[in-house]
Design brief:
Blueprint lengths: L9 H21 L13 H7 L7 H23 L17 H5 L6 H6 L1 H6 L39 H18 L7 H7 L17 H10 L11
Helix pairs in contact: 7-8, 7-9
């Protein structure tokens, strides 16, 4: 709490604080992403502003516009079908082709599946005493409400989903055990995990596996939190 200068009343100070809160709230609302139910009349120009898009040339912008509108049509068609239990929205990848989006998935499935026998060697049957009857389970669980899931992150143009998935899993497991939710550094996992045998990809932004990430963190007695990694 900031100190009140001599000569200013507490009321004046609180009024100033309230003004600041209102300004922050207005900025937050203005920066909010358009939700799935707000896409009527949504345009490519608005999308460019909202996601700070900049293209190399007019030709690329035209092409991205065509990709965007095709994707927007697909999104709205999906949302109009009542039988779906979830909705689609726009994001930073709505102007990207399927091939471009696949390139961001830093995990090569054929390679990963080829190593299933290694994982099965370490498989153990779960403790029967920990089993729960299906009828005793809740119909749904939102782990966000329980404080064991960190915020959604953006991997950018790097095929690093394997490092994000590994970090998120470890964060949640730690939170379930201790009640404390750390935020681990995906960049550390990405940069410091060797992948000499090309497991799940070629390493780094070229792909990897959760097993490699866990092995690296165990060897280093844990991982850095994202706030401390520079």
């Amino acid at each position: 709490m900031a100190l009140v200068r001599r000569g200013h009343s507490v009321v004046q100070h609180l009024a100033a604080v309230l003004v600041m809160v209102v300004v922050v709230a207005v900025v937050a609302v203005s920066c909010a992403t358009t939700r799935w139910h707000q896409l009527d009349g949504y345009t490519f120009e608005r999308y460019e502003r909202e996601f700070h898009k900049h293209y190399e040339s007019r030709a690329e912008r035209q092409w991205r516009s065509e990709v965007f509108y095709a994707r927007l049509h697909e999104i709205r068609s999906h949302n109009a079908e009542a039988h779906h239990s979830w909705k689609k929205g726009v994001n930073a990848f709505t102007d990207r082709t399927d091939a471009e989006r696949r390139g961001l998935r830093g995990y090569h499935k054929p390679t990963g599946f080829s190593r299933r026998h290694v994982m099965l060697e370490h498989y153990h049957e779960p403790d029967a005493s920990l089993s729960v009857a299906p009828e005793a389970l809740p119909t749904s669980v939102d782990w966000r409400d329980k404080g064991v899931v960190s915020a959604v992150k953006d991997q950018g143009q790097c095929g690093s989903c394997w490092s994000f998935a590994s970090a998120e899993t470890l964060e949640s497991m730690w939170a379930l055990q201790t009640g404390e939710l750390p935020v681990l550094s995906e960049q550390q996992i990405l940069a410091c995990t060797p992948n000499d045998n090309d497991c799940g990809g070629t390493g780094g932004c070229g792909g990897g596996t959760a097993e490699l990430a866990y092995g690296t963190l165990l060897a280093n007695n844990g991982g850095l939190t994202s706030e401390w990694y520079v």
